[in-house]
Automatic annotation (TrEMBL):
Protein name per UniProt: GxGYxY motif-containing protein
Domain (GxGYxYP putative glycoside hydrolase third N-terminal): residue spans on this chain: 329-417
InterPro entries: GxGYxYP_C, GxGYxYP_C_sf, GxGYxYP_N_2nd, GxGYxYP_N_3rd
Annotated ranges, domain GxGYxYP putative glycoside hydrolase second N-terminal: 256-326
Organism, as annotated: Chitinophaga japonensis (Flexibacter japonensis)
PANTHER family: EXPORTED PROTEIN, EXPORTED PROTEIN-RELATED
Domain GxGYxYP putative glycoside hydrolase C-terminal per the UniProt entry, residue ranges: 435-657
Amino acid sequence: MTRSMNYPVKMAAALLPLLLLFILPSTGQITWPAGQFLPSFPASAQTQDLIILRETSTRWEGEGPALSHKTGRLETDGWLCQTGIDAPNDHMIYGPYNNSIPAGPNVAEFRMKIDNNTANDDPVVDIDVRNATTGQVLASRTITRTQFPVASNYTNFTLPFTMPADNQSIELRVYWRGTAYTKVDWVAVQQNNSSAEMYLFASLKGIVNRTQPRIFSYEGDAFAEGQYTWLQSLGLGWSEPADKWDLITKYRSELSGLIVYDPAQIHTVNLATMLARDQHALIAAPTLVSRLTSAPYNLPVLLDLRGQFSSKLQVYQTLYNTYWPNLDHRLLIGLNPDIHKAALREYATALGAAVIWLDPEVPAESTLLNNFLSSMPAGANYMGWWPEEAPGVQRASTYGIATIASDWATNLTVHSGMPRTVNVKPMPPKPALLNKLYVAFILSDGDNLQYVEHLMRKLWNNPDRGSVPIGWTLSPAMLDAMPGALNYYWQSSTDNDNLISGPSGYGYAYPNSWPSQSSLNQFVAKTEDYNQRAGFRVITIWNTITGGINQNVGETFASHAPSTLGLTAQNTGGGLTIYNNSLPGMALSCNYCTGEQAMKDHIASAAAGWDGNSPRFIIIQAQPWQNVTPTSFKNVANSLNADYIVVRPDHIFQLIREANGLPVNPGNNPLVFRR
């Protein structure tokens, strides 16, 4: 690849001899044995420093009460103006008159979309930032039609500005020209002091915890488990500093200085995340530099990224050209620096991993993303998340790379430092095969480590857990990333809690898209290894949310995952397929149910026409994000008549096997039955 010697790359090249000293592998006590998906951290300290990390919101919804309008109207998730309907040449958005934005450099953000980005290049909107206290316009910009890269998808437009003083009122405005359908999702100011602290303390956690995990943060929202829950579940003690800034003083001897990111090019945060580990540096916003370079911290600025890059793509091209050749290619992390300010960033900092945010649906970004993915070895992983789920997982899958969803996982450095022993409970004996309607429930999304850490842990406390059989999807990668949590789930499980593998094995992938049969064989064989050690006998296979399982994929699981009892497929109503005369694959009767009524309806549909002369098998998978709980499954089970029997997912596959003349205990797994 030809490298353009623009200024940022010249700057990077000039610093290369120094920086390579930091980039060359230097993992301290972190170990990453060959064949292990993710690294192991040193043992977590018995007493953790517990801090609360929460961001004060400086984002305002287009349809929300903080903003006003002179034209346009509310439509679902935003504020809409349409040509020929709404009055042109007026402000469709203005407000919020917020005075919490600190003095200094900052960036406003406007999230908008139009329906056609190619008709012409007419001006669509004027955006500006106004100091409502003084009346001064601090920054302005005209957005034309072709500056929207994709029609009908939201695009974030940024506008750098400098706030002259603290406690002054800010106004963000969108002036609609009337030339195109325009919808505003939200407006925001990227940085306030609470935002800056998220990056700062995520990097502090990463630097400190890489040698011994000692800092635990609670960053919870409505889906979260509670600030002490995991510390108690893992048997760890904690102390809570009066001020989280005290920890910078406490661990000052482990810090060398600061890397200052550029708020005008927020993706420099991801570059700083990669560089921070080996420079023992904190990631600092310009607004915090004065405080951090003064007593009692006295941290020098080691690298200042302000003004060095003119675009997002330039940041990641520099990362690829200059730093990627010397990084560990077994792992690539995707984090949106506008949103993922802490959470998984501590883990990325501790590992010094490459962190990107590239969209496979944006052509220039897609090309660069392919360069990263094509240089990763077999069995490599992409952690974090994607701009959009299906295009991202699909792209990684075409390179034989699984996605380990984990963007909002908050304490993987601590979880990865817990003991790696997982005590798997044996499966209870299966029920007798009768001419009944057998129903199994599955709760989806356990491939996502942040769900396992947060919402699932909250659902696990539901008082109705254990009253009805439920298949709880989990990630086999927990053996590396969250072994103590996996052991906790096993040890606290009831006979009605069946832990199974989330999609589509050791990571989220679309196996139908795997690049070669040999690499698919490796993926499935490694999944079998991890599932056996994790105690998972059932795998939920996704090939998009509605896709079935290709014949070669099913046969590969039959050949290379011999202990697997069965596979579920997302092609609702697709029925039963037996691969290689040995492995049943069952299409779900509902692939992502949203509530009790949907589950009841799909069960009734799947049972239609049953004559009672043979067994029938129905598997219902529900999603957890819209208040589906163990109580929901109990209510559905209680609504069924005596023709139905609700069983665990592993049991339903044993019954399917028995009904079709297959061995009920393939692979002679010693952990099948409890005597």
